[in-house]
Structure formats: C-alpha cells, structure tokens
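Lab notebook: predicted structure, single chain.

Context: the supervisor wants predicted structures on file for every construct in the current expression panel, including those that have not yet been purified. This is the next one on the list. No modifications to the sequence; it matches the entry in the shared construct table.
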Amino acid sequence: MQIPIFTVDAFTNRPFSGNPAAVCLLENDLDEDLHQKIATEMNLSETAFIRKLKPEDDFTKSSCFGLRWFTPANEVPLCGHATLASAAVLFHVQKNTNSVLTFVTLSGELKARQVKDHIVLDLPLYAAYPQELKEVEELIKAAVGDMIVQDLCYSPDTKKLLVRLSDTYERSVLEELKVSAQHFLSAEKTGKVKGLILTVKGNSSGKGHDFYSRYFAPWYGVLEDPVTGSAHAVLSSYWSEQLGKKEMLGTEFLLGNLCVCESEAASNMKTCKSSHLDSGVESDTQCRSGAGCVVKCSSERMENAAKRRLAANARERRRMQGLNTAFDRLRKVVPQWGQDKKLSKYETLQMALSYIMALTRILAEAERYSTEREWISLHCEHFHADSYHHYTAQKPAADSDPYAQRVFSYHPEHFQMAN
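Prediction complete. Output recorded below exactly as produced.
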C-alpha cells in the first residue's frame, strides 16, 4: 500500500523553518504498529494521520475525517500545529471544496475552516489547577534551577505542568534561559507530567504581549517545540483567569523563532488561525478569537540558533528511538522485564545490564572451579546492526585473575540511552 506523505512547515514564510509536521493520507485502514513506525521514520515532532471514516469518503469532497498524531516515541492526544498542517493539506493540496472540516480525534471533534487566506482552528480550552511544589520539586530544579517560581499549575487533561516565573523577570530572561530538557526524564519518572510550560507575564501596561512562553516535551522525544497549540490551550485558560481578559496576545520562543499569538479564552474553546502552511507560502498570520501564530526570523543569527535547537530535538528523538529499540529487544528475550511500572525503560535496561555483569562473574567462578568442559559460543547483540561481537569463553590460566577473562565484555559506548 502506497501512502502519500506531506511535510508541512507551519507558521513560517520560508522553507526549513517554523514548526514542521508530516501529514499522511490514509485511503485504507493501517496496521496499528505502522503508525508509530512511520512517525519514527519521519523523525519530526509530530506526524499526523488523516483517515476516511467511511469507505465512500473522499479527501476532496468529504468534510469529516479521523485524525491521530504521533511523535517518534508515542501517540499524543492533541497537537495544534499538526492539525493546522492537516487542514492545509486538505484545503490547499487536495483542494477540498468544503469551507469547514471536522476532525474526529482523541480530544473530541476539532473544526478547521477557511477564512480568506487563513485557516482558523478550534481547540479545546484546558483548565490548570494549583500544584504542590514538593511533588515536582526535582523537575522544577532541573528546569529553572534557583530561579523564583511565582505560580505552579497542572493540567490533568493534557498532563502539562505550567511554571510561571516571577513577574520581576523580563522576557529576555525566559528567551535566553538555557534549559537541559533531557534531564527532565530522570527528574520526572512517574508519568504524571508529559509536557512542561515555562511562562512569564508580559507588559502590565496593557500594550504589547500579555505573556511569553516556552514548551518542552522530552517524554515524547521532543526537547523543545517551537509553536505548540496544545500548550496554548492551557496557557489561554491560565492567563485569562490571571489577567481577567478574554482576548490576549502571547509569544512563544524557540531561540530564533518568534511566535505572536492572539488568543481568546471563551467559555470552553480556543481558536487558532494560521496562514497557508504548505512549504510556508505566506508570512503574516492574524488571529481573531483564537491562538494563532506568526513566525518572524529577524536575522541570520536567530535563524541559525533555531536550526541548532531543531537539530538537538532530532538527536533526542534518535536517543529515544534507540532506547525503545533496546527495550523491545529485551522484552522479546525476557518478557518479564519491563512489567514493573515504577521503573523507567532506562532503569530497566540498567538493571538488565547489572544482571548480565553479575552472571558473568558467576560463570567465571564456575569455570574456575568446575571440571574440564567445552563452552558454547555466545552472541551479544548491541543497538546497531553493524555492532555485533562474538565472545567465546576460555578457561583462564591457573595463576591468572579469575575475572580477567569474561564471557561478556561490557562496552558502554555502544549504548545510547536517554538520561
């Protein structure tokens, strides 16, 4: 089966910038495991799968479709920029004749409509509730160090933790903050948090932006996402209550990417408007009653910084892919491993490695004191297909160190695990 796949740069007027997403059009049902394999192969922050709900549906004429989103590591319940990308493919590439499209998703029905040269997208508005610091203290420490945290909220619907820094901090402090998102994985292993939002208050005079933000999701293999619709579904709810406003202007940073958003926090919906998304045709994006984004790269230096961050995201996704591959191979050999939900995949692999090293020691002891016998050849498989090593045990000399020659050799450089 051939599947057409489109790569869409959202929120930009130039190729190879903005927030990219892959969009797959499914004529027929796809095997469940292939969704994740394709998303891992595409290696973008999100891959969207548009499917027909009925056999007689048509991508050109029908108005209602199923939609799912996958990161390189997991399926996610909501993704704003990949939804906009999906609507852009249907409107601008498939030339869908409807003015309004409905997507059936894990977050309910989402509607996308064409308004002149823009696409307007309705997203759910998710509430955020006060969060005890002691429950996530290690994660906050890994994110902002000793910086002053003014407020802490948690959105159970999205599993996002919102961290509001002190109002004494200027936007430049958030923009220039160096965050090692890969350290979040070891700081938060309960599964409660899947995304972290850092935000500061904007201009209190009523002019300019109402709030600024950055978003991190290493649990999904994305160190930092440049333009995040699902994060603004939480931010709009929070800042609407804090500022007493229904229409706001916000900015999301990813070093070189400036995202200007005008958000309306209505009773239960948030609307997002974007310009043409296929390869970044237009640059200006306005947003009425919603969260829309405009990306402006003001200089070559800022654009290069954004590219470096996107490259870091790609490296982290590869690390997560290697971790998942190693874990799956371990489960095939010993199905019992990984059943303890309190341990992360990384901790499970570490424990397995400890058992292997202990077994090596036991076998070395047994060889030292046992009678003469032949040993079988053992095959040790590492992560990469070209990294295969064969080890054949040999009986050590009588006067040699009993642990000098091992059945297994430990070469940590072959393993690429997420910290």
